[in-house]
Amino acid sequence: MKKIFEKVLGWFRGIGIDKHWHFIVGMIIAAFFAMVVGLEVCILPVIAVAFPKEMYDTVVKLVPIDWWDLTATILGGLIIQIFVYL
Q1: What is the pLDDT of residues 1-19, one digit of tens each?
Q2: How far apart are CA 37 and CA 15, in angstroms?
């Protein structure tokens, strides 16, 4: 059991800190639209914010789209969306 825990912990440590932040921001956006606005499909605002943000990085900062950042943000929103459906 300890080996499994260490393996999972090592996997989490291997993920970049910016991906953690993207995940948290996706959760915050989805939670805001679910609780405050009352939107039942709260994943849509997450996508509507995450994709243009990556486009902004591409155009202004001249870096390629980081699909993992986009995925982490959407996965954060998806967690909240699952709770809304439950």
Answers
A1: 888 888 888 887 888 888 9
A2: 32
